[in-house]
Amino acid sequence: MSLEPTQTNKQEWKVISQLVTSIQREQKSARRWGIFFKSLSFVFAFTVLALLVSEDDAGAMAESQDHVAVVDVFGPIMAGAEASAEQILPALSEAFEAANSKAVLLNINSPGGSPVQAGIVFDELQLMKLAYPNKPVYAVIADVGASGAYYIAAAADFIYADKASTVGSIGVISSGFGFDQLIAKLGVERRTYTAGGNKDFLDPFVPEKAAHKAIFQDLLDDIHQQFISQVELGRGDRLSDDPGLYSGTVWHGQKALELGLIDGLGNLHSVARDRVGVSKKVWYSAPKTALEQVIDELGAQTQSSISWGLSQTLNQPLQLN
Prior knowledge:
Blueprint: H1 7-63, E1 67-74, H2 85-97, E2 101-110, H3 115-131, E3 137-146, H4 148-153, E4 158-161, E5 166-168, H5 180-185, H6 210-235, E6 250-252, H7 253-259, E7 264-265, H8 268-276, E8 281-283, H9 290-314
Parallel strand pairs: 1-2, 1-8, 2-3, 3-4, 3-5, 4-7
Antiparallel strand pairs: 5-6
């Protein structure tokens, strides 16, 4: 029996050798990527820590100097949103309480929203102004300050906007759909059982009832009057007697100035600098955390690096030469 390796055995050993070499190559690559990921994690953690420290130091330094306290009112005004009473009021409270804030500035860019949320902010802001009579309140409208956003702005001592800002919309709206004819065509029978004559108020699957429509219109009119009363309380005799003032119309900033809806043209920076006389601004709205900022800035790059690294590690082809 010959102990010399056959040609077949030689080929098998060659394949095994190549497999071992490939496995070793993959292990080295995996170690390298492991080191890379660990280093990346360290850099990420260090960056977050550095941002937290620098953010706290910068914030403390800014608040120790004379400044304008800025509170943002951005986006739709509704419960649970960024522009909700539960988000705006704590920021306003801190802005008033800050020893070195020389004025409070509402930085508004919102189309409006809930009259309840806007009303809460308006009422609480009036109380804060009484508690801190020496801190004037400015509202500055950017792109839009309409409806509920203007409701809030009316509580300020002074309102400014850009000449092209959208201002006003002092009105109330509610809308819906009626599907009664549609379900009739589809042969769908609507079955509703109520206790209380108006419990099916504005049911979209039955024909609109005149009595319900009248009730709802009264409701809207009452809320509209509440809105008007608050605007008049805030703006007083600065308002013009234009008959369209409370029609729900919106105007650009220049026209809003003529109507007395605002006190002048300006922006966040010019109002702080020229009206308050203090250029430094400190934001009191709840900011994104340092971690959120890092994720926003580095998330896409990190995800791309990780995806590429995994593809290189896991999809390394075997070379069977």
